[in-house]
Amino acid sequence: MDERTRNLQTQRRELIEKVSDNVVESARPLIDPDTKPEELQKFSREVTDRIQFEANVAFSEAVTRFAVRKLEKQVSEAGERMFERFGRNFRFQHMLMFLSVIFLIITGIPLKFPSVGISRFIILDIFGGIQNSTLIHRVAAVGLIIVGVWHLGFIIFSRIGRRDFWLMIPRPQDIKDALQTILFFLGKRKSGPKFHRFSFIEKFDYWAVYWGMVIMIGSGLVLWFKEQFAKGIFDIAREAHSDEGLLATLAIIVWHFYNVHLNPDVFPMSYVWWHGKLSESDMKHHHPLEYAEIIEAEKQKVLAENEPRTESAEKQP
Amino acid sequence: MRWGRFIAALAGALIIAGTASAQEKCMVCHGRQDLFRKTEAGRKLSLFIDTTILHHSIHASRQCVDCHVDVVAIPHKQAKDVNCKRCHYSGNRAGAPQGQMYDQYEHSVHGMEVIKGNAKAPVCQDCHGAHDILPPDSVASSVYKQNLPKTCGRCHIDIYATYRESIHGRSLADGKLDAPDCSACHGEHNIQRPTDTTSSVSAGHVSNTCGKCHGPVGVVAKYGIKTDRTATFEHSFHGISQIMQNMTAANCASCHGNHDIRPAGDPKSSINPANIVKTCGREGCHPEATPQFAGGKIHVDPTKKESGLVYYITKFFTILTLSTLAGLFVFILMDLFRRAKQARTPH
User: Fold this and answer.
1) In Å, how far is A137's CA from the nearest CA of chain B?
2) One domain, residues B205 and B287
3) What is the residue range of B317's domain?
4) Average of per-residue pLDDT across B313-326
5) Most buried of A74, A178, A292, B297, CB within 10 angstroms?
């Protein structure tokens, strides 16, 4: 026993004595004055023991709960098998995209509602004038254009990109899935449809962004180099840029924020954008067809590896 | 002897003043057409007062000494400048018009120049006249709408020459009294330099000033001129920049000019197809402007069918946005509803 432990024990004993004295003092009006001092001491010891016991139970329960929660988390993150959903390349595309889009929105939307107080606050007080905010808008636009070109390169030259783009193409099954989902929401079906790698919701998200990128970059370039275009083209580009900008902003705030932040499954945030991984249970739950395909492929691979050995084993004798 | 004559003259003057009407007494001398004095520059200055003019002025009922208060004896020395403020101040009891214009004048560019000691700066009489002063709605008044440009032009001669040829000047001369005179844009007593941010013709305010006639409640509709000009301007990037206090962006005057405003059909107009490329291509604006860029319609209203494709694009996006968001909202609500129901039912 070292000195520190001994010290702690003395402190503990002193504390217990203090508490028991206090218990006796505060209980004195209720106690028969004829009670013997030995009985009184016994009573106070019982009370302090009880307090100590309750405190120990509460503390250990808190510790256990915390440990269990941490354990659960560790099991789901490390213990459970994780499936890579988004590779590093794709995650960097997403990061550059949301950085650009955040700046594009906060420098762009105020110009659609210039008379509103908060728009003037953002442009005049935060950015210090429309010259600055439009410059930032153009810098962010370059970021978005880079993402667009990068992604086109990704879906053409990368094997994973080509595979994912192929899986992204809408199919008749997606319409069936959408209808089944609505029926499920309305309680007409026991369960929702089973999805492959990309559900119809994710396909909608992807193609909405695709459409938005084409409209925003195309019209934005016309606005940027307006002197090279006819006034009629400029007017159309301006209207499209302004309206599609608002649509994209609202879609991100309503739809994307619901799916990746506010949805009870992921609240407060899905971290897939950061580590790019889905747990086995998430895979089974959200992408059962893809999960089954992966497992089947692995099974086939294992079988294929084992087959020659058995054949050679048969041929040996 | 000299004192005696002076006292006699003074006494005589007082006696005359006491008996006959004061005006008649002044007219003893000032009714003579050959009365004049020599100015310091050596020129002859007529001191003749035409009583018919005087009697038609708004001050007909006033006496000479009501304004020329320093003249207390006949003969008198050179009279001092008349101070109109003796009666014309806000809250006066002399029956002069009430209003802010007296204070406004003192803070205007004209009043400030007078205070600084600029001898050329105009005082009340320079615009309103002296003995011939008339109310502004009287056609003979120097500040009557159709006469005002000429009055201002006495000092601002070049501007008057330009203005007279402009659509505003010509319309006013034609008797269209809705057309703006100088004060319609610049203000009356509160005139400020255009570079002063409080001026009605400063970069920040000029679109409001033009909008008084060319805006939603504008009077120009009467003459078949469109009244959506300020709305379409505010919708444009030029207008948005103005709202965001960027005064380098174009305002009405940047393209249409100021005193030389002419309709687009006029070959001398800054917005005539022959000149529009030059106008848009001004230094600091769009030097790379091409005829295709500058030649298109400028005041486009996307909410009007006549705007063509722009109108349909706007409609398309309105429908697309509303339907998409409605769909997404319903989808989210259904999802949440399903989750809530599932959470309530025991497993």
Assistant:
1) 15
2) yes
3) 308-347
4) 96
5) A178
